[in-house]
Amino acid sequence: MMRIWYFNPENDLALANGGLNYTAPPRAAQLRHDLRLLPAWLAQPGDHVLCHDRADEAWLQAQELGVAIITPDELPGVTEAEFVPWGWSRATRRTLQRMGAPERLLPDARHIEAAHRLSHRRTSIAMHRLLHQLTGGSSSLIPVELTSLEAVKRWAALHPGCYVKLPWSGSGQGVYHVLDMDDAHLWQWCHGALRRQGSLLCEQGLERIQDFATEWHCHDGAVQFMGYSVFESDFHHQYSGGLVDSSQALHERLAAQYPAIDQIIAPLRQAIGTLIAPEYDGFLGVDMMLYRQTDGSIGLNPCIEVNLRCTMGLVCCTLGSRHGLRGTFRIADATVPADRPLTPPAHFTAVVTGS
């Protein structure tokens, strides 16, 4: 069946908002516009990417991906297709409805509500607990969900260098690294977050060695492992770029640091199959971390967070394994030289450099 892909990177913000109608802030709206053809690299020949016009049709054809543009005025005539936005939310479903997507081709309200609920960061707590049962891993890595400012302050005081996270956010956004208990801005941020979203997730800080993720796809209850992605993040764990290489090279890079890396795949598949797949169809990524333990050895945190959507890690994984690209994937302004631009030149451009 043909897929119709739609790039809506503001979906994490729409989930936090929770409403049927959501207006993206200027930067997110600019990203949506400039990188609208990025899903073409995830698509298969015969698929379409939803764009408001055909201005970049010649550029897309030149990439020889076998993927075409479809515009909103063509949607009412679609009889069979699967819609694949970057992520699902109440607002995304409403947006596609307004564009003309046939109602019967969109997920029903039950699936949308499940995606909203499972996108809450407390899903990472459930994942940790189940993985702890399956593998006997460290229970000290399990995050806690707190609902009062006083409880957050007490927990942070007991865990210097911890991280405080918003329940709904993504790509490292909505994360505060607690370095100073006298940081007035931190507590103002926490107070506002608790008022808006009702709770905060707290987890201990670790000596990071390597950020990476496992990429997955759920369909009709089945869970498929898509591969590893290796990425870079800044001091506050916000995504800054990803490694583009073959599946074998990415695996070897991780296994060289942590030889038992493959042992987590089966428990992760089981955990996703238990907690997520019964209610969710689509792509997801599980962010993970290799870290230095107190005895100097390398440990694995198997679930930093769960992203129920397409991810930039999935893009990197696919660029390397299917399209044969090598280098570093970044979202850059148009002035940055690129060995391989992945989207048409604009204010923001997806690029692979250093190939």
Would you write up a description of this structure?
The mean pLDDT is 93. The protein is globular, with a radius of gyration of 20 Å. It is 32% helix and 26% strand. With 355 residues, it is an alpha+beta fold. It has two domains: 3-106, Rossmann fold; 121-324, D-amino Acid Aminotransferase, Chain A, domain 1. The chain has eleven helices and 16 strands. A hairpin with a 6-residue loop joins strand 15 and strand 16. The strands form three sheets. Strands 13-12-9-10-11-14-16-15 form an eight-stranded antiparallel sheet, sandwiched between helices. Strands 3-2-1-4 form a four-stranded parallel sheet. A four-stranded antiparallel sheet has the order 5-8-6-7. It has helices at 11-17, 26-34, 57-62, 90-99, 109-118, 122-135, 149-158, 184-197, 247-257, 265-275, 312-321; strands at residues 3-6, 48-50, 68-70, 82-85, 144-146, 163-165, 175-177, 200-203, 207-219, 222-233, 239-244, 282-292, 298-307, 327-333, 340-341, 348-353.
